[in-house]
Amino acid sequence: MNLSIFIAITITVVLWASAFVGIKAALIDYSPVHLAVFRYLVASIVLVPIAFYKKIRIPDRSEIPRFVLIGVSGISIYNILLNIGEKTITAASSCFIINTAVVITAVISVLFLKEKVRIAGWLGMLVSLLGVGMIAFGEGEGGLSADVGSLFVFIAAISTSIYFVVQKPLLVKYSSLEVVTYAIWFGTLAMLPGLVGIQGEIESASISSTMAVVYLGVFPAVVAYVAWSYILSRMPASRAATFLYVVPVLSILLGFVLINEMPTIVSLVGGGVVLSGVFVVNRFG
Hints:
Blueprint: H1 3-26, H2 32-54, H3 64-85, H4 91-98, H5 101-112, H6 119-139, H7 148-167, H8 170-173, H9 176-191, H10 198-204, H11 207-232, H12 237-242, H13 246-259, H14 265-284
């Protein structure tokens, strides 16, 4: 591995881990919907000069519906539901649950792309779902009730899995940067009705919360995706994906250092179970 790829991997992992903590910080003053639309307005604006410099192509008219679908599923729905979930569960727990997207993507691929999953893969999926259940009950108050925030984050994982599968044919013709750019633009467009009432929140929000939103829009939403595109252009996706197992660990550390947040022991064990299942699906499934 050369230095440039190592730097790109480090940037991606750190920024994506920080996103879960940044969302938690921004939710102090912003509603889940306003946070999502504000964040991706920033990202959309930042992408304009990048798109111009890279001379990205305009999609064919027949493929625009697919771009709209990945924008709505992977940007709009995913971010709003993730933000709602993080209102009640920790950043690290959210990160663990989002990792089930690998498992869910496998299921969707079997159903719609006719791909094959081995017995080990199905066992890995069951293990990951068990881990999600442990996190839900670990985050719930009283120890016997599941936290509904975990359900929202799990649905967000389903939504981003749809994004992964639907974008697959597009990546044959378009670059990763082109796919990400149009996904973010269409996803942001779909969220524009959520701007209603945002002015009041911006005026009353603390500077730190607003800066957290701007940070989320510029770095995890743009810089990390560009870095990820660079990585995918220079190594197999399966190998690159293994580095993402570091993201939940970093999310725990950043959550503890930056916002003094620590998941419960049950949630941490559940997170380990989730990652174990994801690893089995990735490696043997």
